[in-house]
Amino acid sequence: FIDYEYATPCPAAFDIANHFAEWGGYDCDYNMLPTKSMRRRFLQHYLESYKAHCEAPTPHRILEALFEEVDRYRGLPGLYGGLWALVQAAVSQIDFDYTALAEARLGEYFAWRAEEDGSRAREGKDMPLCEQR
């Protein structure tokens, strides 16, 4: 199997959140991450395509529910990608700085957690770019 970890079903919202996280590329360029309005437009087109292929209604409330569900998953690709990069740093023969990638991706996860639990605001820290986007 290639990419065996993708052989299991995941909630669509996780896969979409991961898609958005990957916009930053291996350089983790957070300026490239989609803004909320870009994510909402993507989801609107996603639902319109779904409707065209399934004859299912896609009212505004479905768009809002999907947007919120995707947003709840937005930090988990950082955890997933960070752990993957740590494993790659230990086993891969490819000349790539997986340790730096792990640090950046895990940083995304911890930035998300700090927003979710309010600790960033309580500590008076600036919001990281990955969360601003």
TrEMBL record:
Annotated EC: 2.7.1.82
Pfam families: Choline_kinase
InterPro entries cross-referenced by the UniProt entry: Kinase-like_dom_sf
Keyword vocabulary terms for this entry: Kinase, Transferase
GO cellular component entries: cytoplasm
Pathway(s) of this molecule: Phospholipid metabolism; phosphatidylethanolamine biosynthesis; phosphatidylethanolamine from ethanolamine: step 1/3
Keyword Kinase attributed: yes
Molecular functions (GO terms): ethanolamine kinase activity
GO biological process: phosphatidylethanolamine biosynthetic process
PANTHER family noted in UniProt: CHOLINE/ETHANOALAMINE KINASE, ETHANOLAMINE KINASE
Protein family per UniProt: Belongs to the choline/ethanolamine kinase family.
Protein name: ethanolamine kinase
Source species taxonomy: Eukaryota, Fungi, Dikarya, Ascomycota, Pezizomycotina
